[in-house]
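Onboarding guide, step 5: your first structure request.
Type a short instruction followed by the sequence, for example:

Predict the 3D structure of this protein.
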Amino acid sequence: MATPADELRRAAEGWQAEAHTALSALTRLGALATPPAPPADPTGLAERAMAWYPAIGVAIGLGAGCVYALGLMVGVPALLAALLALTAIVVVTGAGPEDGLAVCLNGLAGGRESVGADDLASRRGLGTEGVLGLMISFALRTASLAALPDGFTAVAVLIAAATVSRAAMVGAAHWVTPAPFAEEGSAEQPRADPTSDGGVDGVPSFARTAIALVGAALIAWAMLGAVAVPALIAAAAAARLVGATIAERTPSLLGAVQQVAETAVLVVAAVVW
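The system replies with C-alpha cells like these:
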C-alpha cells in the first residue's frame, strides 16, 4: 500500500517530467538539462506539460528583460538593447515560433481566407510573405520594446508578453481542430500514430488549459496592472484571428499564435505607456 510520501514522490516526479517536456518543447534548454525520471503514467505527457507553458514563458521573458535592462545600464541605445533582447529569445527558443509564423503566412499567399495543414505543408520554405511577415513582426516588437519608458517596465512587459503568448498556444491546442493524421515523414501534419503522447497529436484537457490561461492572466495583471486588460484582449483577439484563419491545428499554427499574441501585448503596452 502506497504511503502519502510515496504518492507525493510520484506526483513530484510527474511534475518534473512535465516541466522538462515543456522546456524541451519551447526552448533549446531542455537538451542541456538532465532528463528527470519518467513518470509512473507517461500517457499524454506532452499534453499535460502544456500547463507549464506559461511558466516557461516567465523564464523566457525574464531572461530577455534582463538582457534589455543590462543593455540600458551600460549605455546601449534603447533600440539596440531591444534588438539584443529579442535576439536572445530567438537563440533560446530556436526560432520555432518565427518559423511557424512564416509558414502560416506563406500558406495564406494569394489572398486565401483560410488554409489547412496540406496548404501549409505545400508552402514550406522561404516565401516572400513569410519573410515580410517576420520582418514586420520583429520590427513591431523591437520598436514597441524600445518605446517603453524604462528598463524595469520593459522587464515586466516582456514577462507578460512571453507568458500570455505561450498560454495562447495552449488555448489554440485545446480549441482548434487538429489536422488529420498524416503519412510518416510529413513536415507539417501531426504524426500518424493517433495514440502518441507527444507533439500536438493530443488535446490538453480543459482543466490544464484553464490553469494555463488563468495563470497567465494573473501573471500579466501582476506585471502590468490595469494595462493587462487591453493587452490580454489584444492577445486573445490576435490569437483567435490566427486560429480562425488556419483551419487545422499544426505546430506552425501554434508558433504563429505565439508570435501574434506576443506582438499584440508589446504593441499595446507601448501605446498605453
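Each response can be followed by summary notes, for example: Residues 181-200 have pLDDT under 50 and may be disordered.
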